[in-house]
Design a protein that fits this description.
By secondary structure, the chain is an alpha+beta fold. The protein has 14 helices and 8 strands. Keywords: DNA-binding.
């Protein structure tokens, strides 16, 4: 019945491919859901058989001449607060490419949507309802009963707020979440307009009157200090909930590897961030100043160079790869003691 109602050709699928015959890679689950704006279809994917061989490549499977002639090597260091820091090419004129989690979530559209959603909550009075909501994560029957009573009291307001009007925004966010990892991987492999001036579109300059400044979208320190504890927790939870960008980008890289577009190799990062990439001294020290906090800036006491931790690690990873491709052993400073 579903193939009469739904045109699967729009999805580049034929009904004969979805009909169970023992050789299908994808099966239709005979289920679709709708929120009034978009429709979600359920498909089943065949599991990988145990006897199917999986080829795992490493650095030793390549040689230097092959890499220079056929590939563009990129050493990638996943950061703690950012998505990645990458060093492109083996030459001395190597390029450093970076992408932050702030940039990733801007591409997904979640930051703009969160700002609009917060303003809507304040106007409609939903924000104090959600702020004062008792937690449902409890083992106490009385506390859980309090949560249920609170939800039933404000259920109509919550359903009216999260009704059909938010369906369009949810679908657009889904599209952006699918698009953002592709854009990040393109930035990593091809540079895109961020690292290639020729690909940038020329934009007209907007005339801004003197004395007028754009208001910052982020909440200032003074405004944040005026909030009560419950509101501060709400803001902190919203910021800390942004996770999973690194894993999503890595999964997209593996998908492209399966399609034959690139090859992903893993490497041991032992002492790559603690060793100077210029003189290979392993006594890098953290630069401490009263102007900023953290351990991302390192200084070498031997050659007096200052490094950003992740850039230094990415360069060392490229040094290790070059040594292996040249037929040499892994540098001793990056070798684990047996």
């Amino acid at each position: 019945m579903f193939h009469r109602v739904i045109d699967f050709k729009k999805l580049r699928l034929n009904m004969s491919d979805l009909t169970p015959n023992g050789n299908n890679k994808i099966l239709f689950g005979n289920m679709f859901k709708s929120d009034g704006f978009s429709v979600g279809l359920l498909f089943y994917r065949r599991k990988r058989k145990k006897n199917e061989s999986v080829v795992v490549l490493n650095l030793g499977d390549f040689i230097h001449e092959e890499v220079v002639a056929d590939y563009q090597p990129i050493s990638l260091d996943p950061e703690r607060k950012s998505l990645f820091t990458a060093v492109v090419c083996l030459e001395s004129t190597k390029q450093i490419r970076k992408s932050s989690t702030k940039e990733y979530y801007h591409l997904t559209g979640s930051t703009v949507y969160s700002k609009k959603l917060e303003s809507r909550k304040q106007r409609s009075g939903i924000l104090p309802i959600e702020t004062n909501m008792p937690t449902s994560k409890t083992a106490s029957p009385d506390s859980y009963h309090e949560h249920i009573s609170y939800m039933l009291t404000h259920l109509n307001k919550l359903l009216m707020f999260y009704g059909r009007d938010t369906a369009r925004c949810h679908f657009q966010l889904y599209q952006c979440r699918q698009r953002a990892p592709e854009m990040i991987v393109n930035m990593l492999t091809h540079g895109t307009a961020k690292y290639n001036k020729l690909k940038r579109k020329k934009k007209r300059k907007k005339n801004v009157k003197r004395g007028e400044k754009k208001k910052k979208s982020n909440m200032g320190e003074k405004e944040y200090a005026k909030l009560d504890k419950t509101a501060k927790k709400h803001v902190q939870a919203q910021k800390s909930s942004m996770r999973g960008g690194k894993q999503t980008v890595f999964d997209n890289e593996k998908t492209r590897e399966a399609a034959g577009e690139l090859i992903v190799l893993t490497i041991d990062e032992f002492k790559t961030s603690k060793t100077c990439s210029s003189c290979f001294d392993s006594n890098l020290g953290i630069v401490k100043t009263p102007y900023f906090k953290g351990n991302s800036v390192l200084a070498c006491p031997k050659c007096k160079k200052v490094w950003q931790r992740d850039v230094n690690a990415a360069i060392n990873m490229m040094t290790i790869s070059r040594a292996v491709w040249m037929g040499e052993e892994r540098p001793e400073v990056f070798t684990r003691s047996k």
